From TrEMBL:
Name assigned to this protein: Peptidase C39-like domain-containing protein
Source species of the chain: Brevundimonas mediterranea
InterPro entries, per database record: Peptidase_C39-like
Domain Peptidase C39-like: 6-146
Domain of life (superkingdom): Bacteria
Length: 196
C-alpha cells in the first residue's frame, strides 16, 4: 500500500460541503495559505469568497454544492482535468509517488458516449485520491472521502464505475479527475509511505 503521508481526513460539515472539505484537505496538506490552516469547511468557504476575483458571497455558502476545483484555483492551487474521467493506473501511481494528491468528482449519472465532461462540475461528490494498492491481484485506489470523516476508503480501480459503496448506495461514476500543482508557497512534499 502506498499513500500520501499526513494527508488530512475531514468529514464534511453539511450534506453539500464535500467540495469545501476536499479543498481544505488539499490546502492543509500542501501547507498553503501562508501558514493559515483551514480549520473548518466554513473557513475555507470564507477564504474562497475573499480570494475569488469577484468576491462572490455565494462561495462562502457551504450549504450549496460548489466546485472544489474552482475554490482551489482561486486559492492558489492550479489544477488541470485529465483527458479521461479517471486517469490510467500508471498516471495515478506516478502522481502519488511524487507526493501529489488528485482531486476527483463522482456522480450517480454515467457520462453518455461522446458526452463532454464539465470541468466546472458542481453536481456530484468530491473526493481526493491519496494512494493506491493491489489487494489479491486487484488494483484499488485509496481516497479521502469526506462523507465518512474517518480512515480512507478503498475504491476498486475501474475507469468507469467508482465503487464499491455501502449496500443500498446507488452506483457512482467517475466524472472528472484533476492533477493538482502545489502552490508556489508550499514547501511540503513528503515522500509517500509504502507498506508493501
Amino acid at each position: 500500500m502506498t499513500e500520501l503521508r499526513g494527508f488530512p481526513v475531514y468529514q464534511q460539515a453539511t450534506d453539500n460541503s464535500c467540495w469545501a472539505a476536499t479543498a481544505r484537505a488539499v490546502l492543509n496538506y500542501y501547507g498553503a495559505g501562508g501558514g493559515a490552516v483551514y480549520a473548518s469547511d466554513q473557513a475555507l468557504g470564507v477564504a474562497w469568497q475573499t480570494a475569488s476575483p469577484s468576491a462572490n458571497p455565494s462561495h462562502a455558502d457551504i450549504n450549496v454544492q460548489q466546485s472544489a476545483a474552482g475554490a482551489l484555483l482561486d486559492l492558489g492551487v492550479n489544477n488541470a482535468m485529465d483527458d479521461a474521467a479517471l486517469p490510467t493506473w500508471d498516471e495515478i501511481v506516478q502522481q502519488i509517488d511524487q507526493g501529489f494528491p488528485m482531486l476527483t468528482i463522482i456522480s450517480g449519472q454515467p457520462l453518455a458516449p461522446g458526452q463532454a465532461r464539465n470541468p466546472a462540475a458542481q453536481q456530484g461528490h468530491w473526493m481526493v485520491i491519496v494512494g493506491y494498492q493491489v489487494i489479491e491481484g486487484q488494483q484499488a485506489l485509496i481516497v479521502m472521502d469526506p462523507s465518512y470523516g474517518r480512515d480512507f476508503e478503498y475504491k476498486q480501480f475501474d475507469p468507469a464505475v467508482c465503487g464499491p459503496f455501502p449496500q443500498g448506495t446507488p452506483t457512482q461514476y467517475w466524472q472528472n479527475t484533476s492533477y493538482l500543482d502545489p502552490p508556489a508557497a508550499a514547501a511540503r512534499l513528503e515522500t509517500p509511505k509504502s507498506d508493501s
